[in-house]
Amino acid sequence: MHKGVVTWNRRFALFAYGFRPHFLLAGLAALLLIPVWALDFVLGIALSTDWPPTLWHAHEMLYGFIASAVTGFMLTAVPSWTGQKGSAGLPLMLLAGLWVAARLMIASSSYWPRAFTAAVDLSFFPTLAALVARPLLRSQNRNTPLLFVLALLWFANLVFHVALIRRDPPLALHAILVGIDVMLVLVTVIGGRIVPAFTSTALRPLGLQGSVTSMRALTIAAVASMAAVTLGDVFAPDGLLGGVLAAIAAAIQGWRLTQWGAIKTLRQPIVWVLHLAYLWLPVGLALKAVALLNGAAFSAFWLHALTIGALSTMILAVMTRAALGHTGRALVVHPLTTASYLLLAGAALVRVFGLTTLRTSYPMVIAAAAWLWTAAFLLFVVVYAPILCKPRLDRRPG
User: Fold this and answer.
1) What residue ranges do the domains of the chain occupy?
2) Which residue of 5, 248, 312, 398 has the fewest C-beta atoms within 10 A of its own C-beta?
3) How many angstroms separate the first and last alpha carbons of the chain?
4) Which CATH code is given to the segment(s) 12-389?
5) What is the pLDDT of residues 345-384, one digit of tens each?
């Protein structure tokens, strides 16, 4: 290899491993998408896309921000699970380029045929699957069902685009809801592994690891209840059945969380943030149950408890931890990162409960939540952009 190329690779490692480009893209997406949405909603500054603003916001948060973070996780976790070499270099550049192309085309959708924009956006998950399927299938790994998760997310996105082309906003929003449910099942499965595992590891030096337990029957019940919530939203959303299923899932998820010794992690932000993220799952499900069964005003924004609270907080928690661990750094977060956790928690609280507690207008609630969210991810980008772009401290590849 040419000496100049070697030097460049040693100084710039953004495409050296799967988490690097996609965690950075997720952070940048979070930093940009919400302020743009808030400016449109609060001040009426029009978006450049011709999609309905609410549909653009929902789609880009799910298939832009969240999908990029999940991609970074999968491209990093699959090599660890299978013991095989991860993707680097050109494949990562092409996948990241595809993600960026889809975002730009959606942002300027009035210049493109909707079917063309859909084709570019829909090509992302199959490309990701092509990178992770072979090692999963070859090793017959227990995580191979994640390919099915990718297929479900792709199908929900397909339904969204078809609904958009047919000018059917209710169907498009329905597809987004199901996509969010699939992501919550993923949080239940993966979060249910990493939260107790990382907590036990953190408490071991204190002799407290025995306070973390994980009942297999409860794990199965938690996953099954979330799958039932997803199926309920597919076939009978917004009804009595959905409320009952959400209530059952909330109770199971809450019980599950009590096993993991959250109170003992309060001095370790990198651990307690995982518990905070998972706590939003039973809270959001309980709010959903109340909204569907009772209609109480305080429960109206249950979906944001699940998206900002559970999904986004878990994403921030995992990105900040994985980026440290996979770049040879100590698992101790910067004070600015702790501040980002607190700001995101504030954004979730304001967005979910602000309208019923702050005595202010809905646009002001949106503006306040957007400010807190943007500050949280600005801190993430400030701290982690150099970490994601620079080589490992221990000079190992990756």
Assistant:
1) 12-389
2) 5
3) 18
4) 1.20.210.10
5) 999 999 999 999 988 899 999 999 999 999 999 999 999 9
